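Re: that chain you flagged

S.,

Sorry for the slow reply, it's been a week of failed gels. I finally had a moment to sit down with the sequence you sent. For the record, here it is as I used it:
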Amino acid sequence: MNPSIHIFSLILVGLWSAVVPAIGQVNVTQEHNNLYRDGVYIDAGFTPSAAANLMRDLNFDGTISGNVYAQPLYIEGGPNGPMIIAVTESNNIYALDAVTGTVIWQRNVGPPVTSGLPCGNISPLGITGTPVVDLASRSLFFDAMIDGATKKHFIYSLNVDTGATNAGWPVDVNATATYNGITFSSLVQNERGGLAVVNGIVYVAWSGHLGDCGTYHGWVVGVPINNPSNVGAWATTAIGGGIWGHGGVASDGTNMFVVTGNTFNTGGNWMGGEAIIRLQAGPIWTGQPTDYWAPTNWFTLDQGDTDLGGCSATLIDVPGATPPKLVLALGKDGKGYLLNRNNLGGIAAPVASANLPTAVRGQSAATYRTSQGTYFVFHTEGNAVSAYKVNPTSPPIISSAWTVSQTGLGSAWVTSTDGASDVIVWVAGAGGDQRLHGYNGDTGAVVYTGGGANELMSGTRRWNTGIVARGRIYYAADNKVYAFKLPAGTPTPTPTATATPTATSRPTATPTATATSTPTATATATPTATPTATATATPTATATATPTATATPIPTPGQITLTARGYKVHGRQTVDLSWSGATSTNVDIYRNGVLIVTTANDGFYTDPVGGRGHATYTYQVCNAGSQTCSNQATVTF
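Prediction finished late last night. Pasting the structure tokens below so you have them in one place:
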């Protein structure tokens, strides 16, 4: 996923950039969906009325082997169709068919650690942090702890479509990571947070084991995905300062942000702990106050084992606030802190802070925006879900928005139909009722109550968080990936048009009116074309046709409605299409009048155009083999 993808999920609907909008995004390539770690998923199907009837897909197998702390991923565009990627503490990696839940491929990268650690609470210890996928190279990256004469962390890169190990990988972190004379020691380090790929470098963060044993440090290691022998690293100077949060490394697309925990034996001299750290590419840390923040009582927090880094860094944009670009930290001290992420400020008072109901540790928070304001939300340790509003003032002010009771613990995520409407906060009652729950993002009113007997899960943990793709929620727990689906709609039949098309090229219609969409709007009118076309081709050559047609668009009930949203992945143009109203089993998709694919009528398709620079693409979706088509939807780069 492009490093800047999150920015667009927080700005007003319809705002576009030449980089990457999250609107219409389908692939889930990393922890909490994007580098901001906001946990927002845009899916037009998740209206409150549809979400209220969410049900588990009992035909989805999802069987895996091992305990799960990591979030699953959802990947399209490969030869095996859409996949769910899941990893376990047994060092198993699975690619599951996203529809059936059956195994496409499976890998085991070595024995996990089951004994011999100086402390800890995860056994077996294998893959803990959420992997990341680089779509451009079709590569999956993760960290695995592997047992042996020397217990070691290895950073792996696999082909996401086959599971084969990519050349030059894995990276032995013990052998390659050093910083200012400090050498990485796997025995005392644990990798809990999600990995991130930012501008061609994969970043991995480490903490210690539960119990704070040994001379561990907070580490961030960076490995260029095209040159894995060139390993960069940063570490806290003091012992301790672990990066414990499930989200791991957050980024604004240029700089990386992590939150550290308590340190030891500092003598009152700040040495990297209890802080928000901003890293430049590499990772490189300047040591300047612009690139770190610690509360003025950091030493007291150290002495009380009260980690600022109880939750990972989450980036928030608040238009109208001064400053508007913020980073959020939620800690074991029961406070929420907001900082100016462009100038963190050193050891100083925060931009804003608020007392929370309880400490926050282990889970991931989510942030989102509605027409009513900007929020962050998390599961408290007191059997409740709490949301807070960040008010656009100078400086911004944090105020309580709503709290609802819910047993257990879990990491929150969010759905929205367009980035600001129909916002639903989702949290699983991990270790409690073990059910999904959905709440109105503005009020906390219950949207989804957890379903019936079939919707009960098992083996859930507070670190687990769900993902959303193609009208489904996927949730990984011990030995199982669960799939939940929205109720299926009944398409309205579309009147059949009369046409004389060619077999390989669709006539270019010249209607009296057209409906198009650009990156600032979506097409809503749907013409029904009745063209008359003549096409000729020379049998001994590649079929060529120059059809002509005219049409009078007549919007009618039961029309196919198409929207198109464009963005770039590593600079290459990509378009997500979504439609409704098609009645055939398969649909034909046309780009600029040329058939590009016949695909299942599931309402979604991603077109990896691959071009660069300025371009305009006009799409239509038709019932397969017919001229019953949607409106034209245009995307301009």
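What I noticed first: Residues 324 and 587 are 44 Å apart (CA to CA).

Talk soon,
D.
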